Amino acid sequence: MPVAIITGASKGLGRALGAALAERGWDLVLDARTAGALKEAAAELSAYGTRVEALVGDVTDAGHRAELVAAARGLGGVDLLVNNASALGAEPLVRLEGLPLEGLRRALEVNVVAPLGLVQEALPLLRASGVGAVIDVSSDAAAEAYGTWGGYGASKAALDQLSAVLAVEEPGLRVWAVDPGDMATDLYAAAVPDDDDPRPTPAGVVPAFLRLLDERPASGRYGAPSLLEGR
């Protein structure tokens, strides 16, 4: 069975994508910082009959990243790495003049440094897979200038660039930076708590990610709305 590592997998997009892959028979290595939520997610996904390894920890910890890859190796390898865990830098989001520099450092560590560290750790197994793929969850804030989204957007823009360079350096892999769009998640609610507009659920966005896995288009940056529309 194929094996995926998904970070930030206890809720939101990570959990929804994990459920979709489990339904397809994928074995999973799940990461999150909250033990209770991760245990619940693992139990739910194990019900599909797939093997699930759930490791509590912080992706900024090199030792934790090594444990994630070791767990995947124990399941047979790594066919897909999903860098989904994210940090905003400030909750709620604030203008750059008030952005705590420590918060920006946290966003960069979680959204840029940790994904690269996990790629480095998993790269031999991704290469050996023959169908290895990396999905880096991005944001439209990486490409557009939105007030208060500067720190988070800068970190996602850096992640996009790392994805693009990795694709050039590793032509045997598929490397997709994916903007899922605004979703009804705890992360979005923390970013903009006063926004009452309805947003798509993570489960509603997952088919865009599955299309990438099914069709394996060229490495690059993709938007979930376009993938869902079939463009």
From TrEMBL:
InterPro entries: NAD(P)-bd_dom_sf (IPR036291), Sc_DH/Rdtase_CS (IPR020904), SDR_fam (IPR002347)
Keywords: Oxidoreductase
Pfam assignment, any one: adh_short
The EC number(s) this enzyme carries: 1.-.-.-
MF (Gene Ontology): oxidoreductase activity
Coiled coil: none
Top EC class, one word: oxidoreductase
Family according to the record: Belongs to the short-chain dehydrogenases/reductases (SDR) family.
Name recorded for this polypeptide: SDR family oxidoreductase
The organism's taxonomic lineage, starting at the top: Bacteria, Bacillati, Actinomycetota, Actinomycetes, Kitasatosporales
